[in-house]
Amino acid sequence: MTTITSNNTKTWGVPPTEQYEKIAFRFRPIFQQIREKTEERENNRELLFEVISWLKKEKFGAVRLPVEKGGLGASNVDLAELLTELAAADSNVTQALRAHFAFTEMVLHADPSPVRDVWLQRIANGDIVGNAWTETGAAKVGGFETRVKKTKDGFRLFGTKYYSTGTIYADWILVLAADEEDNHVFAVVDKNGEGVEVIDDWNGFGQILTGTGTTHFSNTPLEQGKVLDKSFEAKFLAGYFQLVHLATLSGIARAALHDVAREVANRTRNYSHSTATSSKEDAQVLQVVGRVHSLAYAVGAITEKAAKSIQAAGEARFQGNAEKEQDVNDQAEIEISAAQAIISRLAPEAATLIFDALGASATSIDKRLDRHWRNARTVASHNPLIYKERIVGDYVVNQTPPPYIWFTGEKVKGEHKN
């Protein structure tokens, strides 16, 4: 049987930065270990607790921290490629860590403070942060029923959140809520603390192991009795969250290529009307595999380009020029949205084409080759594509600034928000 390695770096282009290979070398054995049982976890709905523990042990969540703070000094361009490699092993894992890396970025760009120092140390120690942002209740767009209230025992949190991706695997939860004056606030709570219940009730047809479930807060004490100050609210958070989705889709496309190449290389049966004696010598089949690879390559290249825009937005935070920072952030949001518009089509196409190369036998449940399309379609459905394309068009034609945080909820009649 021919073995196809899950990470053939020679076919994905030169590394994104000079330091990338040194960083990636540390984690590739874990990525390969994750890849070995991806189908088994999928078949058994086996959550990622063990997988996340492997990554925590190697301090994967700290890669963005400066070396002097206990990290590896990876840029966001490095991180995007690293998350792509991880998603090629199991796309659920990359998505499950999405909120953690966004929170890490918030900490890195916050003003110096004792609270910031605490979080830098926790991240350096391997702690993982999940999220509880989205609601599906009766709150209107931009509003939250989840509340931070001041009680005799300090600040407490009350409410229910949905789509809490990765939170079931986390040590801490970043919550977006409203205070008693209806202001939006970020609060951080202990995932295993008082009044916290995290439920694995995600029923989507893809990304089924991301822990995207419901989180309840009932009189839950806040970390250090306070919410995070405004300096933690990095302007490019919306684009940053989406960048992780792009890396996830890039990894899914690579995983589809890995599996179709392996199946074609090992296929012994063939069709009577084939032009070759074996599938791996059939020019038409090889053309399909080549197209899958080309699609995966294009997705990776676009993701890397988008990551550079996020890196620039982060660097602009410290340049002391508010007007330039705003302009760079606007450009990053538009680049990320434009990238999503294309990648969200290319990755599912790559996942679909593998069946043209393999035929009906590829639909076997045991092979789980359908997971690539299901996963890609699920990730691509986040943050609706049609709105992103409109935002890009409105910026290009009318120079309308993009929105920086996306909300869901009940739309008030006559209300319009870009």
UniProtKB/TrEMBL annotation:
What positions does the domain Acyl-CoA oxidase/dehydrogenase middle occupy?
132-219
Domain Acyl-CoA dehydrogenase C-terminal spans what residues?
245-383
Q: Which UniProt keywords apply?
A: Flavoprotein, Oxidoreductase
A Pfam match: Acyl-CoA_dh_2
Do you know which SUPFAM superfamilies this protein is assigned to? Acyl-CoA dehydrogenase C-terminal domain-like (SSF47203), Acyl-CoA dehydrogenase NM domain-like (SSF56645)
Q: Where does the record place the Acyl-CoA dehydrogenase/oxidase N-terminal domain? A: 33-127
Q: Which GO terms describe its cellular component?
A: cytoplasm
One GO molecular-function entry: acyl-CoA dehydrogenase activity
Under what name is this protein listed? Alkylation response protein AidB-like acyl-CoA dehydrogenase
